[in-house]
Amino acid sequence: MESSRRGPYAKGVAKREEILTQALTVVAERGVQDTSVKAIADAVGLSPAGVLHYFSSKEELFTEVLRKRDEVDSQRVAGLDWGGLGEASGSGEPIDVASARKQFVELLESNSDVPGLLRLFTQLAAEAADPEHPAHGFFRERGELFRSLFAAVFAQHNRDHGRTRVDPEVAARMLQALADGLQLQALLEPDVDMAGIADAFFDAVLGD
Amino acid sequence: MESSRRGPYAKGVAKREEILTQALTVVAERGVQDTSVKAIADAVGLSPAGVLHYFSSKEELFTEVLRKRDEVDSQRVAGLDWGGLGEASGSGEPIDVASARKQFVELLESNSDVPGLLRLFTQLAAEAADPEHPAHGFFRERGELFRSLFAAVFAQHNRDHGRTRVDPEVAARMLQALADGLQLQALLEPDVDMAGIADAFFDAVLGD
DNA sequence: GTCTATACCTAGATAGAC
DNA sequence: GTCTATCTAGGTATAGAC
Predict the structure, then answer these.
(1) Label partner for A17 (CA 20 to 30 A): which of A127, A154, A168, B29?
(2) Strand C nucleotides with an atom less than 7 Å from a protein beta carbon
């Protein structure tokens, strides 16, 4: 009929969510390499084609898994509040530098608890170098958000202390690089004290 | 015969080298994703099976390519001399901190010129998280070498200036993370000023 | 709109001939 | 030392069942 507007896609949306959640689990357990579309399909009780009904390709699926992880992260870490941080940077309110620093270190630690996802993140980031890759935009935007957030934090610190040790934009880039690099190290040597290194970095950049 | 030791493997060794050299070129041009064993085989005038006669798997081949790149790097960068740096750190001779810093930045810049290899490096590093991966040992050893080298550099700086701003071991780890992270960023945004960021880092850690 | 079955294609790996 | 042939696994496109 023409009036085919009774959209029964509530179920579809739910299924899509379920696929993402399960994929998150499977990837965390087995790593990206060993996660086929079939493995995800099995976990969710579908055929591979059934899964690809919701995502145009495996790469896009993984990209969405990453988005999902970002959501989960922001709820899992106690006291983490990217949103609030973002707002504060836009408005005139002063930013709590110590709190931002603490949140960042906590986020680092929580990441290292799930090596499978760390691997997904790093590998996809490398693959997303290609502008055609579905995750390319995701990573660029994520990086920009991260840097603008922490550039604001560093700028606040400079105001508080009346000096500029390191340019806030540069410091934000350094922090981003440090975080990504530490995660790479943690993949190879799970014992790395990421929080300790990150703390030392803040000390060095902010001045003791 | 027992004395079957007349090894006609001079040719084999040469061919193996040729495969590595060609693979280096192919990967640099097309990126890891688009480099199949067949592509390398074509470049070197063999069949895929012919190539895999020399390497037990594609992963192992790529690992060797990375090793090869490390060799090439140390010759390509003007004035770079890891060997000398390593020796100096072992002996009692003082290390030229400024020179080490300069070499490091130059190496960073030269790396960013070849995104294909950058990607190979980063992706393989992520995959090598698995202890079973052929590149696992390579990356761990490489990281340890890097850190011991630069820990010595930072220690020397501390001696020269009679103070300890950051623990040398910690600083070395930070530098390694920064380098890896910057390369990741450079993959997504080719315009990143890696050398500038790295320089700012040295300024912050060494003290102006 | 949701999903299965099927078929197809690429690619890494292996066996055995030369 | 190298090739041909073959096996297997996995991603993707299509047709059509429900």
Answers:
(1) A127
(2) 1-6, 10-16
